Amino acid sequence: MRASASAFLLQYYLSRKRLQHRLAEHQQHRLNHILRIALEQVPFYKELYGINPNQLDPELRMIDIVKTLPIIDKNLMRAAGYERLLSRTTKPNLHQVTTGGSTGEAFQVSMTQLHRKRRVAVLYRTYFAHDVRPWHKLAIFQNTPPGIDNSSWTGYPKSAFVDITADTSTQWGFVRESRPQILIGIPSILCDFANYLSLNGHHYRAKAIFCNSEMLMPKQRKTLKKIFGVEPINVYDSWEFGNIAWECPMRDGLHINSDSLLLERHPDKGILITDLYNDVMPLIRYAIGDDADIDNTACPCANPYPRLSSLQGKALECVVMADRSERAIAAQLCENLRFFKGVDAYQLVQTEPGAIELLLNHTPETGAFEEYKAWVLDTFKLTSVSLRIASSKDDFIVTAAGKRPLFYSKLKHQKSAN
Ligand SMILES: [Zn+2]
């Protein structure tokens, strides 16, 4: 039988009761498989661990063994070389994703097509837990040419892709035409879209909004709720692992997808993740660079999976001040840019400590820039704000992952290139 994402989803639902009681057993079983593959077939782990799988103490449980193994991260893996990270020398038709758009340093993760479908199912499980139904249409704000996917690849609800590099008016035209009930995207971009609608007197109500890719800040939550009439749902995800955790319907923490991922918290390194299914390129105790507490207490919503609380990390974009201290104010600086009338493409670029440059695709109305500049200098104590009008779309910076970020730090880019 050909496994599809919908078959996985059905399997999850059928096994939900069983998993509630046997989650630890299931994790143990999967870990056993992944660790053996890593120890026997992956040069990177063979070298790093220096353990012969036959010497493992049979009395010890894998879940205890794994906690004694070295912690890895993107830099360590990248330095080892891509070929040494794989379990197979022949790799027919692997699915590949590339991480690292925000830092400009790409890192490639490979998986089987089957695993990719499993990830899609895990994502839709989140949507369905928040009352999304198969007949709803989803608008996904991402870096894809606009178009309608009649769900041939997922077998799930229809998806409309909204091009995030397009001007906001074009995005609005597309959304108005395709009329999705569900909006999915990066919070800063959805907020930008929301503010555009509000300022131009357009109304759009959504049944649900899912925010991914970066931290959903309290102010963004408020903006989205006010304009779309519904409280957004936070999804914690990454290119390496797909959907990691998602906000509980009771709004108290994010449930971890513990049947696919094993999460630990390290006092210095933060969250460590082990993918329980990726046996092509195993990721074991991978420090993802975010931090949160893991809450194992029972949730009132009856979901048996543990929760993440007080999640910190992910694109809390920082602006470097003149004294080189960093403040997480990029989202606030960007949100107010929408108030330039007639401007539909912009980007804020940090050029020097304490200095930002504003790139717009049209000259703003008289006085608008001066007003913005005064607000930034006064409120955020930056030392310089300059204006540049783009001569073409190519003037805007696009990251290695193809994103056109609202805020881009040239300082961070230089730092990571050194
Ligand atoms: Zn819950």
* Main sheet characteristics: 10 strands, mixed
The strand order across the widest sheet is 4-5-3-6-7-8-9-10-15-14
What ligands are attached or bound here? zinc ion
Number of structural units classed as domains: 2
CATH superfamily of the largest domain: ANL, N-terminal domain
Summarize the amount of helix as a percent range.
25-40%
The overall pLDDT average reads 83
CA distance, first residue to last residue: 50 Å
**Spans where pLDDT lies below 50 across 5 or more residues:** none
**Strand coverage percent:** 15-25%
**Radius of gyration over all CA atoms, rounded:** 23 Å
Number of helices: 11
CATH topology-level name of the largest domain: Rossmann fold
Backbone structural class: alpha/beta
CATH class of the largest domain, named Alpha Beta
Please count the beta strands (DSSP E, at least 2 residues each): 21
